[in-house]
Automatic annotation (TrEMBL):
Protein's name according to its UniProt entry: GT2 family glycosyltransferase
Residue ranges the record marks as coiled coil: none
Keyword terms, alphabetized: Membrane, Transferase, Transmembrane, Transmembrane helix
GO terms assigned for molecular function: transferase activity
Taxon lineage: Bacteria, Bacillati, Actinomycetota, Actinomycetes, Micrococcales
Keyword Hydrolase: no
Pfam families documented for this protein: Glyco_tranf_2_3 (PF13641)
Transmembrane segments: 467-486, 498-518, 525-543, 555-582, 645-663, 670-689, 709-731, 743-762
Species this protein is from: Janibacter alkaliphilus
Length: 1027
C-alpha cells in the first residue's frame, strides 16, 4: 500500500487494532536515502515500535521514489505519512509544520520522536523513552553516542550557565562507562532536538521552537520555557541513539555559543539584559585576551565568537511568552555554576579535559595488564632501592641531624637562608669574609627558591641551613629523579617502554653517577637529571614538525643547567648558532631561541664568565684536583674512587657501538659519535688542564684545580645509550621478523649490564665522604654575627701542611666548591693572616697589636680547632683575647681589645675621641636598615675592604659622605650635627637583572605550547548544509 501524503490525510484514528496508552509518532527528517533506509530498519527493530512515521523529505534534490523504503514499515502495520519541506527549512521549523498538519491521536498522550536520518536508535531506546515520559514530563532526552564508536558520548542534554555559557557535561567524545547512568530521571535544563521524545501538547502550549535563536539556542529556549511552565525535561541514560556527529557536536561552534548566549539574554528581564550585555562583552573580551596570552588561540576564538550575541540589537529581544508556573530561583539547580564553568575553562586551558579522561586511562591500563606489567614502577623501585642502599651512610648521617645539610666532598656546608641567598645574588658586593664584587650565578636565585620551600614545610621546625637541607635532599633523590626523567624523555626516540626503562637504569648506575652522589657534585648531578630532557628537546626542536615552544623549553632547561655547569650552555648556544647560520629556514627561528634565551637568562653572570673564561669548564662540584688514572679506565667511564662497574659499562658501550652499525639513515647517530668523542677527550685530557689553584687558607691550598673527569664520562655513556634508543625504531622490518632471536641478545646484554651495574653500586655504596654539617662556631658567636653588631668569627685549624683559616660572619659562603674567585690580598686580609701566624707560633703579629687588628676587622671571636696546650697558652697570653671555653675539640676566645671600653667589636662603629661606639647593622657587609641614630661628630668606620666603598653609599642625615682614602679600612668623617647615618650596598647591574627577569617571563611564555584541539573531519549540520 503506498504511503499517504501528510497534507491529504484526513483526521482518522490509527489503523492499529489495539492502540497503546500513548501514541508515538516518529518525525524522520530525511536528507539521504541510504541513511533513511538504515534508520527505518532500526525503527522496525524497536522493542516498542512507533505508531506512526512521518517522513519529512528535506534533501536538496528530493529523495525520489520512497516506496521501497517505506513498504517494510507499512507492512509492519505502522502508519506512514510523508511530506516535503524546502531546503532552507530547518528541523525545528519542519517539526512545527508537522505538528500543525498531523492528525491528533485518538486516545492517550501524543508523543513525537524526532530523528534525523543520520541517527540509529538502540532497540531499547523508544521503550525507555516512553517509560520515562510520564505525566508532567515535557521532553525525554536519550544519550547521543557516536555511530562509529558507540561507547563515545556526543551529548546528553544541554548544559549551560544562567548567562548562556555552554559547558558540555559529559564532554563530547567522553568514554561511556556507565558513569552518567545515575542521572536517569533527573531534570535537565534542556535537550537537543535530535533523538528527543516530546509531548505534543506541551509543544503546542509553548508555541514550539523559537527559530530565530538557531539550533542550540532554540533547544535551550524550549527546555528553559518548559521547565518554567512546570513541564520537566528528563534524561534517560538507558535510551541510546547513535548518530554521525557533526563538527559542532564534537565541540560547540561559535554559532552555537552565540545562540546559547542569545537564549540566555532572552530569558533575562529587560533591565538585566541592558546591564548584562555590555558587562559580558567586556568580560568575554578580557578572557579572550588572556587566552591569547596563554597561547590558546582556539579557546580565544571561541570567546570572541560570542561577542555578537552581546552587541547585536536583536539579542536584547525577549523570548516567547509562555506559562510560568515555576519561579526563576527554583531552576537554579539546573544551571552550571560559575565556579564549574571557570574550572572547565581552566581545564581546557591546561589541556586536561581530554576525550578519554581518567576513567578511559584506567581502562587502558587494565587492557595493557595494569601497573604490574608496566616498567616505570619497577624502574623507580630499582633506583630507589639502589640509592637507598648505596647511600646508607649518607641517609644515616641525615637521620641523626636533618636540619643542617651535608658537608664533605664538594659540599662545603654552612648556614644559608633564602633571604641570604637572594641578597648574595642581588647585591653588588657579596661573598664571605671581606667579600667581592663578582656577580653570582643565577643558581643562587634558584637555590633561594628551594630554600624558601624548605623554610615553609609544615612540621619541619627551625632549620639551621634551609639551603643545605635542600642540597642534601637533591643529592639523595637525584638518581631516582634522573631515572624518571630519562624514561619519560626517551619517548621522543622510541615508544618501547621496557627498553626505555633499561636505558634509564643504565644511565643512573654508572660510575660517574655514583661518584657524583658520593662526593656531592651538584653540577654533574643536575646534568644527570637534565641532560636526557635537553637531548629530547633538541631532537624535537630539530625535526620538521618542531616548534619554537620546543626550543624555548629546551633553552630553559639548558639555562638552568648552565648556572651550575656552564659548558652545557655553551654547547647548546653553539648548536643554536649553527641552526641559525646553516640550518633550514624552518629551523632558524628555533636556532635563535636556543642561542639567545640561555644567554639572556644567565644575566650579569656573563661578566664573571668573561673575566674568568676558565669557569666555563668548571661549575658547582665540577672541578677536582689532579688525579692519576689509567687512560683505559677513563675510557670505560671508571671514575677514581667510584664503585667498580667498568666491566658492566664496557658491555653498555659495546651495545651502543652495535647500535651504530644498524642500517638506516639516522643523523642523530653521528651526533652521538661526536658527543662520545668529545666526552672521551674530556675524560682523558681533563687531568692535564689546570684551571687554577686552591685558595690560601683551605685544607689543600695551592693544589691544582682541573675539570672533573666524570663530566666527559657522562657524555660517553650518554652517547652510547642515545644510539641504542635511536636504532630501536629504525631497524628494518625484515630483520625484525627473520632475526628476532638475534636481536634479543644485545637487548638482554644491555639489561643484564644495567642491573649488574646497579647491584654493584648498591653493594659498594656511594662512600663515606659526606657527613652532617655542624656549626663550627659556638652559639654566642652565631648570635653575635646575626645580631646588630654583625661580628665575624675567625676559624683557625692547623693542618699537616700548614695553617688554614677562614672568616665567617652573617654573609653566606659557597655551599658547593667551584673555581675560586681570584682576588689580590687586601691589607686587612694580610693583617689577619699575620695575626693567625702569630697566634699559633709561626711568627706574625702578636702582643698588643693582635687584638686591635682583629677588632678593627669586626672579628669578635676566635675559634681554634684541636689546639695544643702550648698553643692555648700563647693565645691566652695575647692581650685582648679572653678564653670562653672548650667544646667538641675546639677552643673559643672572645676579642676585647684594650681601649675599647670592654665593648665587643662591631662591623660598623663611630670612633670619637678614641672611643668606639657600635652602629646597628641589619644586612650583609655593614648594611643598615635605613637611618641609624649616632652621636654627634667622629669618624664612621666600616670593617670592610676599600673596594667595598666603590659599591656602597654612606649618608649622614641624607647627605652623602666622602671616603677617607688615608685609612686602610673604609672611614668617613661625620658632620658635627649628624644625627643619623645609613649604609646601603648597591644592587649589582639592576637594569640587566631586570632584563633577566623579562627574559625569563618571555621564555616561559614561549615555552607554552600553542593550544589547538584535534582536527576532525568537517561535517555540517542540517541547517548549515542547506545554507
Amino acid at each position: 500500500m503506498p504511503p499517504t501524503r501528510l497534507d491529504d490525510q484526513p483526521a482518522a484514528p490509527s489503523r492499529r487494532a489495539a492502540a497503546p496508552p500513548a501514541t508515538v509518532t516518529v518525525v524522520l527528517v530525511a536528507r539521504d536515502p541510504h541513511d533513511t533506509g538504515r534508520l527505518l530498519g532500526s525503527l522496525l527493530s524497536q522493542r516498542r515500535p512507533p505508531d506512526r512515521v512521518v517522513l519529512v523529505d528535506a534533501s536538496l534534490d528530493g529523495l525520489g521514489d520512497t516506496d521501497d523504503l517505506l513498504d517494510p514499515v507499512d507492512d509492519a502495520g505502522i502508519e506512514v505519512l510523508r511530506t516535503r519541506i524546502g531546503t532552507g527549512t530547518g528541523s525545528r521549523r519542519a517539526l512545527q509544520r508537522v505538528v500543525e498538519a498531523l492528525p491528533e491521536a485518538g486516545q492517550g498522550r501524543d508523543l513525537l520522536w524526532v530523528l534525523p536520518s543520520r541517527a540509529v536508535p538502540h532497540p531499547e531506546s523508544l521503550d525507555q523513552l516512553v517509560a520515562a515520559a510520564r505525566p508532567g514530563v515535557g521532553v525525554a532526552a536519550p544519550k547521543l553516542v557516536d555511530a562509529e564508536a558507540p561507547r563515545r558520548l556526543v551529548r546528553f542534554g544541554i548544559q549551560a550557565t544562567r548567562a548562556g555559557r555552554l559547558v558540555p557535561d559529559p564532554r563530547p567524545d567522553a568514554l561511556d562507562q556507565g558513569q552518567y547512568d545515575e542521572l536517569g530521571g533527573r531534570d535537565l535544563l534542556a535537550a537537543p532536538l535530535e533523538g528527543a521524545l516530546l509531548d505534543r501538547a506541551v509543544l503546542v502550549e509553548l508555541g514550539g521552537h523559537l527559530a530565530r535563536l538557531g539550533e542550540i539556542g532554540a533547544d535551550l529556549d524550549l527546555g528553559w520555557r518548559a521547565q518554567r511552565a512546570g513541564h520537566r525535561v528528563v534524561g534517560v541514560p538507558g535510551a541510546r541513539v547513535a548518530l554521525t556527529p557533526t563538527a559542532a557536536e564534537h565541540r560547540p561552534s561559535g554559532a552555537h555559543r552565540r545562540q546559547a548566549r542569545r537564549a540566555a539574554m532572552a530569558h533575562a528581564s529587560l533591565p538585566t539584559r541592558l546591564l548584562r550585555g555590555p558587562w559580558l562583552a567586556l568580560l568575554t573580551t578580557l578572557t579572550a585576551l588572556g587566552l591569547l596570552l596563554a597561547k590558546r588561540p582556539d579557546l580565544a576564538r571561541d570567546e570572541i565568537s560570542q561577542l555578537p550575541a552581546f552587541l547585536s540589537p536583536s539579542s536584547y529581544r525577549g523570548t516567547r511568552t509562555s506559562p510560568r508556573e515555576v519561579s526563576r530561583s527554583h531552576l537554579d539547580a539546573l544551571f552550571v555554576t560559575p565556579a564549574t564553568a571557570r574550572q572547565a575553562l581552566a581545564d581546557d586551558l591546561r589541556g586536561e579535559r581530554g576525550a578519554d579522561g581518567v576513567d578511559a586511562r584506567s581502562l587502558e591500563a587494565e587492557r595493557s595488564g595494569g601497573w604490574l606489567t608496566h616498567p616505570l614502577p619497577w624502574l623507580l623501585l630499582a633506583t630507589l632501592g639502589m640509592s637507598a642502599w648505596a647511600g646508607r651512610h649518607i641517609t644515616g648521617e641525615m637521620r641523626s641531624r636533618l636540619d643542617a645539610g651535608l658537608v664533605g666532598g664538594e659540599l662545603t656546608g654552612g648556614r644559608a637562608t633564602s633571604a641570604q641567598l637572594f641578597d648574595a645574588w642581588w647585591s653588588a658586593w657579596n661573598g664571605p669574609g671581606w667579600g667581592s664584587a663578582a656577580e653570582q650565578s643565577p643558581a643562587m636565585l634558584v637555590l633561594a627558591g628551594l630554600a624558601w620551600l624548605v623554610e615553609h614545610v609544615p612540621g619541619l621546625g627551625q632549620v639551621q641551613s634551609p639551603a643545605g637541607l635542600a642540597l642534601a635532599a637533591f643529592v639523595v633523590a637525584a638518581l631516582p629523579l634522573a631515572a624518571l626523567v630519562t624514561y619519560l624523555s626517551a619517548r621522543t626516540l622510541t615508544d618501547r617502554r621496557w627498553l626505555r626503562a633499561v636505558v634509564a637504569l643504565a644511565w643512573v648506575s654508572t660510575a660517574p653517577a655514583a661518584a657524583a652522589v658520593g662526593e656531592g657534585r651538584i653540577g654533574p648531578l643536575l646534568a644527570i637529571v637534565l641532560l636526557p630532557r635537553i637531548v629530547a628537546g633538541l631532537v624535537r626542536a630539530g625535526r620538521p614538525t618542531g616548534t619554537v615552544a620546543d626550543a624555548a623549553r629546551t633553552a630553559l632547561w639548558t639555562a638552568l643547567l648552565a648556572t651550575v655547569l656552564p659548558v652545557a650552555g655553551v654547547a647548546v648556544v653553539v648548536l643554536g648558532l649553527v641552526w641559525l647560520l646553516v640550518g633550514p629556514v624552518g629551523r632558524r627561528g628555533r636556532g635563535v631561541t636556543l642561542a639567545l634565551l640561555p644567554t639572556l637568562l644567565l644575566g650579569p653572570w656573563l661578566l664573571t664568565l668573561q673575566e674568568q673564561p676558565r669557569r666555563l669548564l668548571a661549575g658547582w662540584g665540577a672541578t677536582d684536583t689532579t688525579t692519576a688514572a689509567e687512560p683505559w679506565r677513563l675510557a670505560l667511564a671508571q671514575v677514581p674512587g667510584a664503585p667498580h662497574v667498568w666491566a658492566w659499562t664496557a658491555a653498555i658501550l659495546a651495545v651502543g657501538v652495535l647500535a651504530l652499525l644498524v642500517p638506516g639513515r639516522r643523523p642523530l647517530s653521528w651526533l652521538c659519535v661526536l658527543a662520545a668523542g668529545l666526552g672521551l677527550a674530556w675524560a682523558v685530557g681533563a687531568p692535564y688542564l689546570t684551571l687554577g689553584q686552591r685558595p690560601v687558607g683551605s685544607s689543600d691550598a695551592g693544589a691544582s684545580i682541573t675539570p672533573w673527569v666524570g663530566t666527559g664520562m657522562l657524555l660517553v655513556v650518554g652517547g652510547a645509550l642515545t644510539a641504542v634508543l635511536t636504532a630501536a625504531d629504525v631497524l628494518p622490518q625484515r630483520l625484525r621478523r627473520e632475526r628476532r632471536a638475534l636481536l634479543l641478545v644485545p637487548v638482554l646484554v644491555l639489561a643484564v649490564a644495567a642491573v649488574g651495574s646497579a647491584v654493584t653500586v648498591a653493594q659498594e655504596s656511594f662512600g663515606e665522604r659526606l657527613t652532617t654539617w655542624r656549626e663550627p662556631r659556638p652559639t654566642v658567636a652565631v648570635d653575635a654575627a646575626e645580631g646588630p653588631g654583625a661580628t665575624r668569627t675567625l676559624l683557625v685549624q692547623r693542618a699537616e701542611d700548614g695553617i688554614t683559616y677562614r672568616l665567617v660572619g652573617a654573609e653566606i659562603g659557597p655551599l658547593v666548591r667551584d673555581l675560586p674567585t681570584a682576588t689580590a690580598p687586601t691589607p686587612a686580609e694580610q693583617g689577619v693572616a699575620d695575626v693567625v701566624a702569630g697566634l699559633l707560633g709561626d711568627g706574625g703579629t702578636t702582643g698588643d697589636a693582635a687584638g686591635q687588628v682583629l677588632a678593627e676587622q669586626g672579628i669578635g671571636y676566635v675559634v681554634v680547632t684541636g689546639p695544643t696546650e702550648a698553643e692555648r697558652r700563647v693565645v691566652d697570653a695575647t692581650p685582648g683575647l679572653v678564653r670562653l671555653g672548650t667544646s667538641a675539640g675546639t677552643t673559643t676566645w672572645t676579642v676585647r681589645p684594650e681601649g675599647g671600653g670592654g665593648q665587643a667589636p662591631s662591623r660598623v662603629r663611630v670612633v670619637a675621641d678614641g672611643s668606639p661606639s657600635a652602629v646597628d647593622v641589619s644586612g650583609g657587609h655593614g648594611e643598615t636598615d635605613g637611618d641609624v641614630p649616632v652621636g654627634q661628630g667622629g669618624r664612621l668606620v666600616v670593617a670592610e675592604s676599600l673596594d667595598w666603598a666603590d659599591h656602597a653609599e654612606v649618608t649622614a642625615d641624607g647627605r652623602s659622605l666622602d671616603l677617607d682614602h688615608r685609612s686602610a679600612t673604609p672611614a668617613y668623617e661625620l658632620p658635627q650635627d649628624a644625627d643619623e647615618v645609613a649604609v646601603e650596598v648597591g644592587v649589582g647591574h639592576p637594569w640587566w637583572k631586570g632584563l633577566q627577569g623579562l627574559a625569563l617571563a618571555l621564555a616561559l611564555y614561549l615555552a607554552l605550547p600553542v593550544g589547538g584541539r584535534p582536527r576532525r573531519p568537517a561535517r555540517t549540520t542540517d541547517e548549515e548544509r542547506d545554507a
